[in-house]
Amino acid sequence: MPVELRDLRAFLAVAEERSFARAAERLNVAQPALSRRIARMEAELGFPLLARTTRRVEPTPAGTVFAAKARGVLEEMDLAIDAATRTAQGRMGEVCIGYNDFAIGGPLPDVIQAFRAEHDRIWVQLKRAGTEEQLRLLRRGRVDVCFLIGPIVADGLNRHTVWRDRYCAVAAENDPLVAGPDVALADLAARPHVLGDRAGWQAYRERVRRLYTRAEAFPEIVAEGPDTSVVLGLVASGVGVTVYPACIENVFRRGVAFRPIRDVDATLDTLMVWDPDRISPAATTFVEAAIGHCARWPDGRYDTNVRAMPRVMTL
Amino acid sequence: MPVELRDLRAFLAVAEERSFARAAERLNVAQPALSRRIARMEAELGFPLLARTTRRVEPTPAGTVFAAKARGVLEEMDLAIDAATRTAQGRMGEVCIGYNDFAIGGPLPDVIQAFRAEHDRIWVQLKRAGTEEQLRLLRRGRVDVCFLIGPIVADGLNRHTVWRDRYCAVAAENDPLVAGPDVALADLAARPHVLGDRAGWQAYRERVRRLYTRAEAFPEIVAEGPDTSVVLGLVASGVGVTVYPACIENVFRRGVAFRPIRDVDATLDTLMVWDPDRISPAATTFVEAAIGHCARWPDGRYDTNVRAMPRVMTL
DNA sequence: GCGATTGATGCCGTATCGTTATGGGTACAG
DNA sequence: CTGTACCCATAACGATACGGCATCAATCGC
After folding, report:
1. What is the rounded distance in angstroms from the CA atom of residue A52 to the CA atom of residue A18?
2. Is CATH 3.40.190.290 the classification given to domain A93-315?
3. CATH 3.40.190.290, chain A: domain bounds
4. Among B76, B89, B125, the residue to mutate for chain A (most A Cβ within 10 A)
5. pLDDT band at B301, cuts 50/70/90?
6. In chain B, which residues have their Cβ closer than 8 Å to the Cβ of A47?
7. Could B80 and A73 be called an inter-chain contact, meaning their C-beta atoms sit closer than 8 Å?
8. Are B45 and A85 in contact (CB under 8 A)?
9. A146 CB contacts (<8 Å, ≥6 apart)?
10. Do residues B241 and B164 lie in contact, with contact meaning Cβ atoms separated by under 8 Å?
11. I want to staple B170 with a disulfide (CB 3.0 to 4.6 A). Which of A54, A225, B214, B258 is the partner?
12. Mean pLDDT of B164-174
């Protein structure tokens, strides 16, 4: 019968009290139970841990060594339980967040900063991807939470709108298009466009297409890029103009200017999306913190569709 | 009922096998016993460690963390038992050795070097003291083994003669006394002497006194020193001469020369002394190694008085 | 839809553990 | 030297926990 933690506790009590009787009192057991427990453990180990005379009890050299190590074992055990508890309560762990260029240019840095300040035991991983790729990662469990733009087919997924942007016209800073305080959609549509490529920007390109379709305009696309920096680079070079959410105000690119679009009211929502059936405690903590953080923004609340999430997983 | 090590073993088996049935087989228990054990542990912790569907078992985030920590706990436990076992077997620990100037100039460095080469897990502490002080330290348990000169009252102590020295005459190198190949005791006795002081050299002074008494000589003592370096320093300065065991050949002091004493056959034994009733396993290892080492010396064996020592303490 | 597989549950026998009573040996006081 | 107090070990007995068997419920694959 191997040595158990209760054996360690019993032994340490005796070693510290230097008395079976006092140790038994401390452990709230009778003294014979202690004597036998220690004796059994010593038989298991094959050597004595305590040198008993009828008057005094003191650890053998092996007992002294074992006591020190045993304390370490019990401490490790406590730490293990602590860590597991914190993990189960969502106060520790790792959360992997998918994001797109709008989210990282818009609300996400604030959200993450506030979250990390409050939960320094939760490690935040970030993974950049477009809407479709993020949803695929979410289904595979590779990310816990997504920040993306709609539309999404939300079969069983929770969503929360965290940000709402108007659209802006973006052009080279010396372009006459951005000479005035704002831009008419028709003027913008008349120009050749630069857009994110189909691989990662499918959802956004669809939104832009609808924007122009409503105005019966069909701008020509003359260049594409994999991400915002490339698109803005192309815009700065004068290849074309583009349409970008207002979060572009947080993105600095030399040689580029942006203006509100005078006759467009449509907005682009950034959604936080997660799977309530598979979400980890740490990710739950993040989602809750993010929702709370968004609620404090002056723009007010947005529509949300959140099923109840148990704070601690139930047994 | 707190979490025990067997709970950790059970949990790790299930977490690794990802199956209660397979884990039960591995642990040589029936599957229901495992189910109940895990369930009881989860109830104790307050959160689930394993997410079960009827077809698959996988750890929760808390379970993953707990598994990693639990492995550490079990490893610590094994290390604790290992360390205690090694200590009990005298393969690990600390041995505190008392020594005098003759021992450190004679056999002790060799003994310690050979011992440390063979037992790198045993820490060797050294404490310099005279015969009486060493025996006092031994009784108080402050040292495990003594290297000293007799005579000693050995009530219950073990002893082993590890070294035997003839006496030498020591004088300043330009002293006519040491001009020849050896020295007559009467010539030596006629000179003023330097000796170790009474505080730490009581036993040796007694031996020297007897040496001269047998030759009916009573040399004058003109200076004393606390240790060999001081005595030899005084000799080098020409204050007086001294008598020192032949191990002085290992002690270099500029300006000093030594010669055998022509008409003295008496020898000085260095004894290893320990208390067989209180000796630690590590010290037992040392004593055995030292005896073995001494046996390999060309001078042959010396008389010894060693009670049997159990190699491993009995239960 | 049916069998196979997997984990959970109920029941029971047993080993383990804890408690009380007692014994043996030592230190201390008188 | 003797009596007493104290301390740990042992014995006997009762309570608890534990493991094994049989069975049930749920899911997957055919």
Report:
1. 10
2. yes
3. 93-315
4. B76
5. very low
6. 84-85, 88-89, 312-313, 315
7. yes
8. yes
9. A97, A98, A99, A134, A135, A137, A138, A271, A272, A273, A274
10. no
11. B258
12. 93
pLDDT of residue B156: 80
CATH of domain A5-88: 1.10.10.10
Selection from A111, A159, A171 nearest residue A134 by Cα: A159
Contacts of A79 in chain B (CB under 8 A): 69
Query: Would you state the pLDDT for residue B172?
Result: 96
End-to-end CA distance of chain A: 31
Torsion angle of C-alpha atoms B208, B210, B214, B215, degrees rounded to 10: 30
Cα(A264)–Cα(A244) distance, integer angstroms: 13
Q: How far is the CA of A39 from the C1' of C23 (A)?
A: 18
pLDDT above 50 for A304: no
Domain with CATH 1.10.10.10 in chain A: 5-88
Could you tell me which chain B residue has the CA closest to the CA of A70? Answer: B80
Q: Quick check: B304 pLDDT over 90?
A: no
Q: Which of A6, A73, A88 sits opposite B77 (nearest CB)?
A: A73
What distance in Å separates the CA atoms of residue A112 and residue A101, rounded to the nearest whole number?
15
pLDDT at B299: 57
What is the predicted pLDDT for the residue at B298? 64
- Which H or E element spans position A57? strand A57-59
Q: Tokens 């010290």 correspond to what residue?
A: B283
Through-space distance between the first and last CA atoms of chain B, rounded to whole angstroms: 31
Distance, CA of B57 to CA of B17 (rounded, Å): 9
* Mean pLDDT over each residue of chain A, to the nearest integer: 90
Nearest nucleotide to A42 by CA–C1' distance?
A: D9
Which tokens sit at B306?
Answer: 């060693």
The C-alpha angle with vertex B214 and arms to B209 and B218, in degrees rounded to 5, equals 50
Q: What is the mean pLDDT of residues A146-154?
A: 86
Distance CA A184, CA A260 (A): 9
Task: Report the alpha-carbon angle B156-B158-B159, nearest 5.
Answer: 135
Angle in degrees, CA B12, B15, B20, rounded to 5 = 100
Nucleotides on strand D with an atom closer than 7 A to protein CB?
A: 6-12, 17-22, 25-28
Q: How confident is the model at residue B139 (pLDDT cuts 50, 70, 90)?
A: confident
Least CA distance to A48: which residue of chain B? B315
Tell if the CB–CB gap between B85 and A77 is shorter than 8 Å: no
**Smallest CA–C1' separation from A30, nucleotide:** C19
